[in-house]
Amino acid sequence: MVYEGHGAPEEGSEPTGTGRTGWPLWEVFIRQRRGLSHTHAGSIHAPDAETALQNARDVYTRRSEGVSLWVVPSVAIVASDPDAAEEFFDPAADKAYRHPTFYTIPEEVGHM
Amino acid sequence: MTGPERFQSILDEDGKIEPKDWMPDGYRKTLIRQIAQHAHSEVIGMQPEGNWIARAPSLHRKAILMAKVQDEAGHGLYLYSAAETLGVSRDELVDLLHRGKHKYSSIFNYPTLSWADIGAIGWLVDGAAITNQVMLTRCSYGPYSRAMVRICKEESFHQRQGYEILLTLVNGTAEQKAMAQDALDRWWWPALMMFGPHDADSTHSEQSTAWNIKRMSNDALRQQFVDMTVPQAQYLGLEIPDPDLSWNADTSHWDSGPIDWDEFWRVVKGDGPMNRERLEHKRKAWDDGAWVREAAEAYAAKHADQPRRVA
Amino acid sequence: MTVISRDTLFAYVLRHGDDCLILSQRLGDLISRAPELEEDIALANIALDILGIGRLLLQYAGELEAEERSEDDLAFGRTEREFTNLLLVETPNGDFAHTMVRQYLFDAYQDLLWNRLVDSSDETIAGIAGKARKESRYHLRHSRSWVVRLGDGTAESNRRMQQALESVWRFTGEMFIDDEIDRAAAEAGFGVLPSSLSDAWNHEVTTTIETATLSRPDDSSIRTGGRDGRHSESIGPLLAEMQHMYRSFPGASW
Predict the structure, then answer these.
(1) Which residues of B touch A13 (CB under 8 A)?
(2) Residue of C37, C59, C214 to mutate when probing chain B, most B C-beta within 10 A
(3) What is the rounded end-to-end Cα distance, in angstroms, of chain C?
(4) Whether B292 and C253 lie within 8 Å, measured CB to CB
(5) C-alpha span between C20 and B75 (Å, rounded)
(6) Which residue of A55, A75, B207, C144 is most buried, as measured by CB atoms within 10 A?
């Protein structure tokens, strides 16, 4: 396949994760059109907030993808731990009574 | 469920692995290597086409080509971002490329010698890339798969514009048609080589397949590409430079002749027509920009206390 | 419309189209040579915007002529002496400091120009200006922020920016000189006098140069001639490259 390595990895070809990091990473959120929430589009590198906003605009809205942008330093994102996914999210699974389809309303009553 | 158990159960259900999930070290390394190579390829791929921006034969074509080369930069950027979710920095990956430790697709080590090459790259090189990338939209690593979805969406214009360039040439003067044929002659075999060695010689395939990174074999993808491309060449009235190319009624596929694997390995190992030039161009741009990157950081540090704007 | 004012209109539209075309040609060469991938993409956006406006202007210029030349005929079929762009936009690419200084000084000018031309008595010009001014406002934001950032960055970036300013400053005076075409265009209501943009440009540029901790070069030397087709030597190779296909394959379509 095209981008798969050919042969064994050359010595020193594995990144160590300790090299220089350059400009900080920012997460980009786009409001596709008025009335919708901002959703995550991707990330960019930029030295500061002003440049981050411009880079996000230049990279992620070239095809009219949005009408508003947020950029957030990636280090500011706090994420839930996949190891805690069961305790975080599974308890919601058995509470079908939270959903409207759980209830039976006679047809004669009409739309509710 | 333990991390390894969850990893396997996600793969079994054909689900997506996300950045914070536990993953085997080999999975992480394979992905970093593959995504980085893919990203480097997009970025190096800006050069052969960039070579014709200044000489595009019409302003209309100039605008399209600029937008296309810009897209390649964007695709490289999306891919580096995907790699960065695996705990490496873009700078480190770029540095490995600059030091010759990382490879990129060998196709970009061939020169663009006429305007028809811009057509051939769009049609054949992007066509081959799309064949591969459509498969990769289904790969198990979420960020890579999402980058592929975005890239495939943007890339569909690339192949069409390439074919349109050639269509214009074959309907033009004899000189233009000859230019188109010459481009096909030079790009056909390198395009087939893009799919990599035959399955029997493909060292990483088995593990990548088990991890749902690779969903189709090299030869299957190559065959898909040949089957798709032959009728397109026929429509153009151009001849594919393969005397062994023939329709196989039993398999309902096009059979093609042997690939020159010596050439393939020569170019992979750095002895292609443009290997040195591509890296030198890339390194020079990076070195020339060092003072800009540093200055921007210095400015940001000086003004860090200023309030951020609310969007 | 009289024949004379139609010629004036043609010349007026053409010169602004030439500015865009030549600058986009220079910018196109920078794609894949920027300091970071994000900036490659930003420069390509600027080049595409400016090329787009250039094409609209050349197409319109072509419609105004009796010969009805196409945008490509005008771009690829004229000689150095027939190009009427400002000298500033043809200055050869240097380092990123040069790119951004040239861009900033020109963006500041074009932004003012389009903001005035939206009121042009000529509907087509007004329409093009309406599209262009949104773009130039963004270009100005981008190049201004780079001028400030690099001027006020490191000692080296400050030195390079000052050097770039000194190098291109002599080409800025030409932007504000009124010639016969400008005067006739302003009088007819479809154009503006370049001299009338000078104060606002000076205010913008002086403020930014100060913020960037740079010094404004003196105005003792002003190079002119672009509007009359008297260019620097550097436009020759630019045109030779840009026009190569058109001239090598006369009459072919692409």
Answers:
(1) 33, 96, 101-102
(2) C37
(3) 35
(4) no
(5) 28
(6) A55
Does the pLDDT at position A85 exceed 50?
yes
C93/C47 Cα distance (integer angstroms): 14
Assess if residue C65 is contained within a domain: yes
Question: pLDDT tens digit string along C188-212?
Answer: 999 999 999 999 999 999 999 999 9
Q: Domain limits at C54? A: 6-216+224-248
Q: How many A-B residue pairs are in contact by the CB < 8 A criterion?
A: 137
Phi, psi of A69 (to 5 degrees): -130, 145
Give the tokens for residue B87.
């705990």
Which stretches of chain B score pLDDT less than 70? 306-311
Q: How far apart are CA B58 and CA C16, in angstroms?
A: 19
The domain spanning residue C192 has which CATH number?
1.20.1260.10
Residues of chain A contacting residue B147, judged by C-beta atoms under 8 Å apart: 42
pLDDT bucket at A84, cuts 50 / 70 / 90: confident
User: How many domains are contained in chain C?
Assistant: 1
Closest CA to B104 of B40, B46, B43, B48: B40
Task: Inform me whether the C-beta atom of residue C75 falls under 8 Å from chain B C-beta atoms.
Answer: yes
- Confirm or reject contact between C18 and chain B (CB < 8 A): no
Tell me if C254 is assigned to some domain.
no
Angle (nearest 5°) at CA B188 between B183 and B190: 110
- Examine residue C229 and state whether it is found in any structural domain, yes or no: yes
**Structure-token pair, residue A30:** 């786009």
At B184 the pLDDT is: 98
Please give the model's pTM, rounded to 2 decimal places. 0.95
Q: pLDDT at position A13, please?
A: 83
- Ramachandran region of residue A86, left (φ > 0), alpha (ψ -120 to 50) or beta? alpha
d(CA A96, CA B310): 39
Phi-psi region of B35 (alpha: psi -120 to 50; beta: other; left: phi over 0): alpha
Nearest to B258 by CA among B241, B271, B270: B241
Mean pLDDT calculated for residue range C135-152: 98
How high is the pLDDT of residue B311?
A: 42
The per-residue pLDDT for B307 is 54
Q: Where are the beta strands (DSSP E) in chain B?
A: 246-248, 253-255
Q: Does B37 touch chain A (CB under 8 A)?
A: yes
Please say if the pLDDT value at position C88 is more than 70. yes
pLDDT of residue A24: 95
C1 occurs within a structural domain: no
How far is residue C248's CA from residue B235's CA, in Å, rounded to a whole number? 27
Q: What is the mean pLDDT of residues C219-232?
A: 95
- Whether chain C has a CB inside 8 Å of the CB on B162: the answer is no
Task: Determine the pLDDT at residue C4.
Answer: 60
Amino acid letter, B271? D
Does the beta-carbon distance from A54 to C142 stay under 8 Å? Answer: yes
